[in-house]
Amino acid sequence: MKLKITVDNKVYEVEVEATETEPAGMPTYVYQGSAPRMPMAPAAAPQMAAPPVAQGPVNEEKVCRSPISGIVVKVLVQAGQKIQPGDRLLVLEAMKMETNITAPVAGTVAKVNANQGDSVQSGQVLVEFE
């Protein structure tokens, strides 16, 4: 059977053949012809997040780690700032959802290890406390 197919306002004539391998009423069509190849944009190279920097032993009571992998949307604290448990430190975005990262302890921020726009991995140290 011959069919006419229009793609981007160009008409192509193709020949198809029904086979008997499918159940009755469900014909399979086999394409016998050549259609012009459509130009495709080159695929962008995937952006890989840098692996967390290996550090020596860390006092887990004095750090806040990322619970998820994502992008830092906002940094809400800076070194020297006093914080209380539950204070928002950063906002991460993963899969179009924002997650507030909160302080696990009261204290003073010693160092913020992430900037707005950074990609972070799950378990990476985001904030260190004094």
C-alpha-based Rg, rounded: 28 Å
Q: Proportion of β residues? A: 35-45%
What is the CATH domain class of the largest domain?
Mainly Beta
End-to-end gap: 78 Å
Helix content: under 10%
What can you see in these coordinates?
The structure is a single chain. The protein has 130 residues and is mostly beta strands. It has two domains: 2-32, no CATH class; 62-129, RNA polymerase II/Efflux pump adaptor protein, barrel-sandwich hybrid domain (OB fold (Dihydrolipoamide Acetyltransferase, E2P)), CATH 2.40.50.100. Helices cover 0% and strands 45% of the residues. It has strands at residues 2-7, 10-19, 28-32, 63-65, 70-75, 82-83, 88-94, 97-102, 107-112, 119-120, 125-129. Strands 4-11-9-6 form a four-stranded antiparallel sheet, with no helix packed on it. A four-stranded antiparallel sheet has the order 8-7-5-10, with no helix packed on it. Strand 2 and strand 3 form a beta hairpin. The mean pLDDT is 80.
Topology:
Elements: E1 2-7, E2 10-19, E3 28-32, E4 63-65, E5 70-75, E6 82-83, E7 88-94, E8 97-102, E9 107-112, E10 119-120, E11 125-129
Antiparallel strand pairs: 1-2, 2-3, 4-11, 5-7, 5-10, 6-9, 7-8, 9-11
Short overview:
The chain is an all-beta fold and 130 residues long. Helices cover 0% and strands 45% of the residues.
Question: What key phrases describe this protein's structure?
Answer:
2 domains; OB fold (Dihydrolipoamide Acetyltransferase, E2P); 4-stranded antiparallel beta sheet; mainly beta; 130 residues
